[in-house]
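Please review the protein record below. Tell me whether the encoded fold seems credible here:
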Amino acid sequence: MYEPIPIKRSSRYGSSYWERYSYKLQKDVQLFGDLKYDHWILVETDPNILKFCERPNSEKLLENNLHKVFDMWQLERNGKETFVNVRYKNQETDHERLEKWCFK
């Protein structure tokens, strides 16, 4: 399982900060932003997701000076692992680079 990348609360100025207890993980989780909090509620209540990690300390995608850290890692009941980026529909995304990294 992954460990969350520690981030100081003050380093995310302007984002809502949520610290909640996860019954699934039996520990507190820290979430920055309302959208990530909403996603966590979906993950926490989904019986098909066994474990997760917010801001997983995984390899960073380094291409064209882009460092990418995923918002969440999820482990499903069937053994499937997923890295998730939570974004609003109107936010810019770079799917091609992320797909390339995921399929390595």
